[in-house]
């Protein structure tokens, strides 16, 4: 699929978000080439599944927020873990500590923050904090 086809299927915002996350993680880990290769091998069916998983993840975070669950709740941390596994499955290997660093970007990088804040105000902070709680849980 061409980049234009991907943007039409997923929306341009996706590439400011998930794909951008994977690219930054890969660059930091020194593995940009494998991640770029993996992304270029994705089919339309793959990209449709990726987008569906993103929407499920976002909905799960919103549900936890709407239920006023703390970020340390099993539901919030499990959603954060599913987010990490999604990144690993589709883009690049990501340890809990790397996921924690990525979560920090959700509140410090305006591009990433915008993606979550456009879904629900306060979501960037909630997702970041749930990711941190999940990474802490993984270290126990």
What does this structure look like?
Helix 6 crosses helix 9 (123-139). Mean pLDDT is 83; it is low at 29-33. With 140 residues, the chain is mainly α. The chain has 9 helices and no strands. The longest helix has 23 residues, at 44-66.
List the helices and strands and how they pair.
Layout: H1 3-10, H2 12-16, H3 18-29, H4 32-40, H5 44-66, H6 74-90, H7 96-108, H8 110-117, H9 123-139
Helix pairs in contact: 3-4, 5-6, 6-9, 7-8, 7-9, 8-9
- The whole-angstrom Rg is 14 Å
Task: Give the termini separation.
Answer: 42 Å
Q: Which percent range describes the beta-strand content?
A: under 5%
What structural category arises from helix and sheet content?
Answer: mainly alpha
Helix share of residues?
over 70%
State the low-pLDDT regions, or none: 29-33
The main β sheet shows up as: none
Find the count of extended strands (DSSP E, 2+ residues).
Answer: 0
Give a quick rundown of the structure.
The protein is an all-alpha fold and 140 residues long.
């Amino acid at each position: 699929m061409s980049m234009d086809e991907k943007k039409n299927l997923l929306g341009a915002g996706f590439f400011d978000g998930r794909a951008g996350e994977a690219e930054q993680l890969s660059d930091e880990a020194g593995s940009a080439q494998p991640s770029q290769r993996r992304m270029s091998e994705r089919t339309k069916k793959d990209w449709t599944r990726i987008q569906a998983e993103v929407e499920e993840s976002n909905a799960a975070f919103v549900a936890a927020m709407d239920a006023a669950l703390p970020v340390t709740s099993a539901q919030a941390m499990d959603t954060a873990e599913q987010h990490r596994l999604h990144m690993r499955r589709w883009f690049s290997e990501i340890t809990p500590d790397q996921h924690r660093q990525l979560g920090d970007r959700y509140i410090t990088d305006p591009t990433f923050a915008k993606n979550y804040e456009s879904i629900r105000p306060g979501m960037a902070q909630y997702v970041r904090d749930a990711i941190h709680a999940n990474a802490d849980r993984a270290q126990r």
